[in-house]
Amino acid sequence: MTSKPKFTPERRRQILEAAVEVIAAKGLCDTRISDIAERAGTSAALVIYYFHTKDRLLTEALTFAEDRFYLQTFHELTNIASASDRLTRLIEISCPPEVRSDEIVGEWILWVELWSRALRDEDVARKREALDRRWRSTIAEIVRDGQQAGEFADIDAADFSLRLAALIDGLALQVVLGDRDVTATRARSLVLDVARRELQFGEALTP
Amino acid sequence: MTSKPKFTPERRRQILEAAVEVIAAKGLCDTRISDIAERAGTSAALVIYYFHTKDRLLTEALTFAEDRFYLQTFHELTNIASASDRLTRLIEISCPPEVRSDEIVGEWILWVELWSRALRDEDVARKREALDRRWRSTIAEIVRDGQQAGEFADIDAADFSLRLAALIDGLALQVVLGDRDVTATRARSLVLDVARRELQFGEALTP
Amino acid sequence: MTSKPKFTPERRRQILEAAVEVIAAKGLCDTRISDIAERAGTSAALVIYYFHTKDRLLTEALTFAEDRFYLQTFHELTNIASASDRLTRLIEISCPPEVRSDEIVGEWILWVELWSRALRDEDVARKREALDRRWRSTIAEIVRDGQQAGEFADIDAADFSLRLAALIDGLALQVVLGDRDVTATRARSLVLDVARRELQFGEALTP
Amino acid sequence: MTSKPKFTPERRRQILEAAVEVIAAKGLCDTRISDIAERAGTSAALVIYYFHTKDRLLTEALTFAEDRFYLQTFHELTNIASASDRLTRLIEISCPPEVRSDEIVGEWILWVELWSRALRDEDVARKREALDRRWRSTIAEIVRDGQQAGEFADIDAADFSLRLAALIDGLALQVVLGDRDVTATRARSLVLDVARRELQFGEALTP
DNA sequence: TATGAATGAGAGTTCATTCAT
DNA sequence: GATGAATGAACTCTCATTCAT
């Protein structure tokens, strides 16, 4: 409990968090080890000491952030009883909000960087695949829960979850990129509409 | 027809093409001016001579490629009479094919790089926005054509085109990233299903 | 007599003049051939065509400017009858004026650049030596004229001219460098005082 | 006392000294960071590590050298009791010697480079001004000391010191530039003559 | 564990100069 | 004579990484 925490796992997390912030702020390829070190309050040498190479650090940072985001979301959803409410909340959480929250936007920025990296790094590609599978499974599970509870229509859960996840990716991307045709509100309501129409829950029409 | 092509616009295009290839192959931030020069068969100095700065070259290269792809697609579509055939072909063209075609995959790789760049460069962001708007307009126009011809159901063309474009982005991305859950065939058929179901054309159910 | 004069000697002079202006404005080592070409209204290739190498151009430009300045001064002095008036005028001309005249200041800037270059280039060193000798001879000649006319005291003309030239160099330098202790007026009056005191002409005291 | 000297202030001085030597040898604008690094026995990267930019290094090097020279001179003068001896020694030190001493000539070369730089860099201009003021003050102080001791005539110390400094500048310059009309001996004796005549000390006439 | 010092390996960019036209 | 195109050779500066302490 000194002012400068010393032992390893704590420091690792501090550095990863710093890395995530820097990547979100400056982009993957403009991120310097010294930027990360500075934000983490240490030296570049220490950063390398913990992660051996810049490459490994960046890869870990990207998945660390997405993993953490998933766990937070997952945890929040567990507390919601009805499947339709759970799905609605999932959509709300995953679409960027109208009021720019750096946290959520940062999350999406990291996805884009992760995609770009996965294109050339098999290791990153596999990690990304796992993250996305888990995400789609979560959706599919909600769907199956709702179907068992009689809340949702009986459609193919796997197909639906893939379609929904892809739609969210595509629309959230536009929002994060600042496309003036795609406001956060519009994106969200389009996704909700699709979900309601296909699963036949709630009021299918937004007035 | 000399062995050393000389005059300006030709050379510019050669360099842009080389840039596009290198970016697709190595990624935006691992692309060196000298790589591009080498592939274009010239010197790095000449590349700078034409584009003044690496930044401008990369930005131009990205939009050049997407613009060219769009024009090719657009041209091909004009020759198709029925709106439903036109939409079907558009979907086929824009989803990556099962057999890896470097051309199409390259196109999608460039989109990812373009997104990543647009996040931090307002200029790039605006150019990307324009490209996407044009793409969605093209879809919307096909929809309206089909509706006038009585081929399609009477849904909101703007909403549909945004949803369809986003779905394509989201699914094509998974394919290009090599997600083993999302084959090119599956992606394509999911998109077609959505289109058929919403616009009520062709056989709505894939057996 | 076309708008763009074509034949050689004219063009040479134009380029030299452009070179002098650029050197005075940007300093010798920040002078680019293309700057000179631009100011002369031609291409860098033509500049090289006339002078073969940047080095030769710069050397010629420096001596060209100083030579021209000398000739102008010399010409003006010939029209003055009395030796003391001639010397007074010479001092006035060679000290930078209180009101910053780019022409005169430029002249002094070029001297500094010429000195710097002469330190490492024997050829430039010899040319500079010749220029300075001619200048000191001019002073010495005025002194001898004045002595013959009974205007001046009978001191060693060679020593005096060397001392006076050196004093002018030293003081003008301070003025051009913007030393706030050495105004143009003060420099000029110090030089005049020395001349009057040593040669015993005019009123030795400046009121 | 290790083979590789490590700590900062020592290294800084080493680099500055190397810079001074290279500048004197090759001239300011032909001085490369790598030349300095090589002479200092390190890498160009380290040079930048210490000075951040070439510009700052050069500026510091120029003033470093002149400052050091001043301090040495000043220190030597303090040990001389009589003002006239002190002034005589000051003149001897500041005029380049007949036998080419690289140290002294180097000093003067640096002055020329400093002047050239001061013409375009306000920061350098101010530093140069400060150096020259200090130098002239030193002369003026000697004069006032001599006047109080009754060694010197009662003339204006400020004017005299400015005139003497300018004369030294002008004559030393000729010597350093290798003007065959101005030997070191002649320059020195001219300056001494002026000093003796104006302040009326020693034997005013050199036989 | 932690870091400042040190560096090699480039990167982008500049620029004098050449050359075909 | 005149020039735009082209390039090789540098140069400054950056940065991941190493190492002694």
Can you characterise this structure?
Four copies of one chain form a homotetramer. Chain A is mainly alpha-helical and 207 residues long. Helix content of chain A is 73%, strand content 0%. The first copy, chain A, has a domain at 61-199: Tetracycline Repressor, domain 2. Chain A contains nine helices and no strands. In chain A, helix 1 packs across helix 2, helix 1 crosses helix 4 and helix 5 (83-94) packs antiparallel against helix 9. Chain D binds a DNA duplex (21 and 21 nucleotides) through residues 4, 6-8, 11, 32-34, 42-46, 48-49, 52-54.
Give a brief description.
4 copies of one chain form a homotetramer. Chain A is mainly alpha-helical. Chain A has 9 helices and no strands.
Counted by DSSP, the helix tally of chain A is 9
Number of strands of chain A: 0
Strand content of chain A: under 5%
Main sheet summary of chain A = none
**CATH top level assignment of the domain at 61-199 in chain A:** Mainly Alpha
Distance between the termini of chain A: 56 Å
Note the run of SSEs of chain A as H and E: HHHHHHHHH
Global Rg of chain A = 19 Å
Shape of chain A: elongated
